[in-house]
Structure formats: structure tokens, C-alpha cells
Write a structure and sequence with these properties.
heterodimer; A: 315 residues; mainly alpha; MetI-like fold; 2 domains; 13 helices; B: 529 residues; alpha+beta; D-Maltodextrin-Binding Protein, domain 2; 3-stranded antiparallel beta sheet; 19 helices; 48% helix; 15% strand
Amino acid sequence: MKQGSAAAVRPAKRRIRWKKAIVIYLMLLPGLIYLLINNYLPMYGVTIAFRKLDYKKGILRSPFNGFENFKFLFSTNDIWGIVRTTVLYNLVFIVIGTVFPIAVAILFNEIRNLKAQKIYQTVILLPYLMSWVVVSYLVFAFLSADNGFINKTLIEPMTGNTISFYQEKGIWPFLLTFVNQWKSIGFSMVLYLSTILGIGSDYYEAARVDGATKWQQIKNITLPFLKPTVITMVILSVSKIFFSDFGLFYQVPKNSGTLYDVTQTIDVYVYNALMNQNNISMSSAASVLQALIGFVLVLAANGIIRKVSREDAIF
Amino acid sequence: MKKMIRNVCVAAMTALLAFTTLTGCGGQDAQSGGQNEGSGTQASGQNEESGAAGGEQTGVVEDSQTADGEWTGEVEKVVMTFLTGGVEPADLGMVQDAINEITTKKIGVEIEFRPVSIFEAPATVPMWIGGGEQIDLFCAAFTGVDPFISLNMIEPMTDLLAQNAPYLEEFSQESPLYYEKNGDVYGVRVTTNSGRVTGGYLFFKEDLEAAGFEYKDGDQITLDDLDVIFAKLKELYPDSYPAGLFGSTSRAGMTMVYDTLGATASSGALIGLDSTEVVNYYASEEYKSFLEHARGWYEKGYVLQDAATTDISLNESMTSGLLRGYFNEYDPFLRETANITYGKEVLTLVLVEPYAPSVAPALNEYWTIPVTAAHPEAAVRLLNLAFSDSEVDNLFAYGIEGVHYEKTGENTIQQTERTTSSYAIPGQMGITQHRYYVSVDTSAEDEALDALAQSRRTKGYGFFYDATAMTTQITAIDAVVAKYQAALETGSVDLETEYPKFLQELEAAGINEVIADKQAQFDAWLNQQ
């Protein structure tokens, strides 16, 4: 906006800018084409959710059947419990997944020894690179009732009994939150750390000259600079609030039926329900619904942020 | 000037994008269009001009074959799915070549295997078909044929079979072979036997002897007898688990006579041989009794504590002695296979004598012809040959003689080391009567069991339930079953609190509605009989 009005005042300069801009637009072109083909073209598949799929006729010629495919989602009362599970986990993940990585990133920034920094960074990032299947076996090695580390070294010697963790609902909300943080903290920390490293050292020098304590520096310099990153990250997370990490909720609890009340998120429910049915239309219906709600939530979250502080909103 | 540049820019971009978009679409359209045309002509050929086309086709078959059965017509390529256990067998190409040597000469068919893991096939193959790839024969395992019919993914085969498969047509008169729906054939059974179902428990003979039991293979026992045997075995081998309950595979069915009428237990079942009443399988006395036993075994430490979630391999656990037995069908073939696998003599005690339900779950696998088949006639010719020709049948089943097995008698073979490493597959095609026996010829035993099963048919024998109208409810019921079944059937959770919840949720998911629908269809069928 500002640039536009400035250019209107000085039309001579704008012409030159446009010539330069063409080159830049041309550079944009491949990416734009890729985006269109990769992200927008397949979207015609969204219509699968509203059709009775017929392989002979193909997707675009299959007959429409309204909201028939959405019915299975609402055929049990469970769905509200499942939605609640999904949303609550995500809310917890958003809060914890913001606070802890920032804290770690700030601490990390204070490490002066380069070698130590390298080692810590690798160690903390390593779980992020593991697949959920591997993680699920690591967790199993701790929790197994027959041979698990916790049962064999702690619980059995002390009480003489073992605990079947995979049949105990109570601990899983905490366990899954912990496992999720353990795995993802390295990556989110790097994101925040890169912002922190971008803050000019002159701010801190000035603050030190004025006698600011470490805590005052963090509160008044680091955190305000992190605000845009945090807002972007939160809005991105909000859009995914109806989605869940399938690996975390399916692999880590080993799909134990007893735990469904606390582990069954929308994705896991859809997977379990449609495993045997092989019904693409119904699966599409579920993800279309997730995406639509996510879209609405992003608009809402951004709307609220725009109301509160206009310059921090993404759009 | 400014405007012009912008306009040129916009125009150029639009043109480029339009071009790329169109080519993208064009490619796809051409593909699906071709596919549509192909299937369209096929369908019309079958439905409208079947008479005329039939005459022509049979003519072609006869013309292309000389008196001694040599094929003189064109050789057509048939792409068929090949179910693997997850790893593609190393010798697959070798077996394919050996089969082709015969089939190109006899029926003018060259096959190409498309290996796919048996666990992934129900999801992967529809994607191939949806993408328009040529698949001439698709083995529908686990899921049955109905989902593919309702998605219009497979073609009816009635006329193709009538024109190209004389042996199958004849065979189907005597023994159930086809999957029929709305008067059309949609699938040909992967293997045939009489469709007997049994239930039993497999032990190592030496274990039972060591524990002081004098059971013989095939002896009849009850669940209460198992209580006693398990107790003795646990005493003898305190570190082992005598009750082979683990994972999500349901074992309750091995302990009772029931018939799910060609669908799953989620839509109700007949319990017992004389019942014509569809009831809630999970609410039955028999099922409850199994759960009570399972819970008892778990509490006494006969069952792995991680049973509900573990993914141990059965063979490894049996070989290492972690498990001391498992629920298994009473079947000579399975017994002989186990003898070889474990290198110890096993015996199976019978919980349920052989009986014949609507369709045995193990037989609920069919060869189907997808809409993307390029040579459906050739595919049916191949099926016909695989069922009628012992050589081709055994090639599919055991691989190549001298490489994968050695003959030890007229009807018996010994598999070589190479089989386990390079061509280990379940019998995927053909007819058990033609097939060699591994190590011991059990044909007499098989016949006796078949005869017994045929004298014990359920009232639903020959009836198939069409679940299409109840898809939504069954999806919900399946979800409830997935939630409770593994935990309950391994005895891992408290029966008193969890079992009532299970039944309550099943009803909330609409199981009674589905049962009523199944009963109505079944009654209508009974009245026609």
C-alpha cells in the first residue's frame, strides 16, 4: 500500500520498477506453476467427497450424492468425544509447543561454547528425525508389561505386580504430550533460535549499559522480537487443530482399543473405520470437513489478532 | 507503456498457465477417456451383443487352437496381482517365465505378475485401477468382492466365463466356485475346497506328553479342558505362555459353530447348525463363554501380558518356546506345515468339528477382472487353465520342480531351502485337488473331513448377505469392534466393566438395525428355497 501511493506520486520511477519487476515475476513463474499444479489442480478431487465414486466413470463423471458420505462421521455419538480429544490435544500442544521451545531457544542462545552448542543442538534435534514407528518401539521398550524397563526395574521389584500401561487410560494424555514434545522440541526450537539470532546485538548492549538484568533483557527485547514468529506459528497450528499427527496417536499407543477414549483422534477414527471398507468417498468426506473447519479457524484466529494488534496479523 | 508491459506480462502468464493446466488435464482426460471407451465397448459387448459376440468368441478360441492344443492365435499379455507377505519373492520372475512357457503355447497368454503386499493390496490395487493402469486379474482378499462391485471397479464375468472357461463352468456346477451378485458372476474363488470350517488348538506333542496327557491328534475337547491343559503346561514351563492369544486376530470363532452369511460378524450371525435367526454374535452365550475363559487365562498368567498390543511373530514365539500353542483350524495341511516349520511333531485338539457355513472366511478370496483389464478374455482363459492343468496349478503354488521342490512320490513333494527364501507363497490360484502334498499325502483325510463338513451345513449354506445398504452402520460397528475386541479376547481387561460397555456401544452404533436387515434378506432367501 505504502509503496503504491509513493509510486503514484513519482510515476517516472515506477516505470523503471516495472521493468525490473518483470524479471522478478518471471522468476516467480515456475514456483507459481508448481503451486498451481501441485496444490490447486488436485483440488478437483474435493468433489469425491460429494460423489458416489464409480471407477468406470472416473471421478468427474461419478454421480453426486449430496452429504451421504458425511453421514458415517455422525453415525455414532462417539464423534463428539473424538472431536474433543483432537481439539484438546492440539490446544495443549499449541501452548506447550510454544512455551517450551522458546524457553529452550533462549537458554540455548546463552551457550557460549561453540562445541557444546553443536552437540546440544544435534542431541535435541535427533528425535525429530526419527519415524513414529521407531518412537513407538522406544516407548514400548519402556512400557511393555512383559519386558518393559519401567515394569522390570521399578514397579515389579517394588510392588511385585506389573502395570499394563497399554490398558491404562489415565497416563496416556500426559505420555502423548510428553512424547510429542520430546520429538518436536528440537525443530521448533531451531525456528525460534533463528529469530533470536537475528536480533541485533546493539539492543542488548544498550540495555546492558542502562543496567538491565538478564530477565529484563529477555522480557523487553527477546520476547517482543519473537512475537511475529509466535503469531505465525500459532495461526499455522490453529489451522491444523482438527488434524492430528497420525503416527503419534496410532503408532505410539500401538492402536490399543482400550485407550481409544484418550487416543482416538479424527484421523485415527477415520483410518480404523475405513480400513476394511476401502471407501475413498468417505475418507475424502472426513478430510474435506477437517480442512474446511481448519480454514474457518484460521480466518477466525487471524481476525482476532487483527482486532487486537493490527500489524501482527498475517492478512 | 506501463499498461502495455503489464498486459503482455499477464497475457504471457495466463497463456503459460493455461497451457500447463490444459496439458495436465488433457493427459488425464485422454487416459480416463480411453479407459471409459474400452470398458464401454466391453460392457456393451457383454450385455447387448453377448449372443453374437459369444458365437464369435467361441469361434476364435476354436480357430486359434490346433487339434493337439497348440495356440496359433495372437499372444495377449495378462497383468495379474501377486500377493506377497511384504517382500517380493526373489524367484518371481523365474516362475513367471516358466508359467509363460506353458501358457503362451496352450492358451496364448503371457502373464506379468504385479507383486503387492497382501496387507496393502486392498488399498494399493484400487489406486492402480483408479489411475487407469492395466490390471487384468485382481485378487480380492480380506475385503470380499462387494466393495469393488459397488465402486464399479470390477466387471461382471458371466459371459466371459461362458465363452472362455469350459472347465470352470463345469466345475462350478458341482462345487461353489463363483461369487454371484444380481445374477452376474463377479469373482472366481482363488482356491477351492469344500469350504469346511473347524476350530481347534494346536500343541506340541512332546509338551502334552511331558505334562502327562494322552491326547491324540483330532481328539475332541472343550474350553474347560483347555483350562486344565494350560494349568499343567504353565506349571511345567513357568516362563512360557500356554494360551496363544495375542494381537487383534479374533480367536473366538474357533470355539463355536456360527455363520456370518458371507459378511462379517459386525452384521450379526447364525449361531449353531440349526438356527435361522440372525443374532448379535458378540452378545451370544458362546462368545461370552470364550471371553470368560480368556479373562481367566490372562489372570492366571497363561496369556502374554502385552497380548492385546504385541506384534510378535507366531513362528518365532513358537520356536523360541514363548508360546506353547495357538488356536488353529483342524486341517491336515496346516498340521503338516506346522510339523515342518517347527521341526517338532504337533497335534490339534478339536474344539469345533468341521461344518460348512455360507462361505468359509478363508475362501472369501476371489479373482476379479477390473475395469482396466486390457484382455479380459485372455484373463479368463488363464483362470480356466490354472484350474484344469495340474502343471500350471503347481507352478503357481510351489514354483519350479528341481529348484523349489523335489518330488518324493506321485502326489507328494519336499520343498527345498530355496522355497522359504525365494518363493514362499500361499496357494493363490487353482484347485486343491490337483495340487501336490507337501511331505505327506493327506487326500484321504481331507476327503473324510469334507464329507463330515458337508453333512453339517448351516441353514445359511449358499446364502450371501448384501451389506451395501448398511455401509454407514457397519463402519460404525467396525469401529466399536476395533475398540474392544483385542482387549476382551485376549482377556487383558476386566470383563465386568468392559463387556457391557462393548455391547451397549454396539447397539448405539446400530447393530440391531443391521441384524434386522440381514434377517429380512435371509428370510426372503429361505422362502425361495
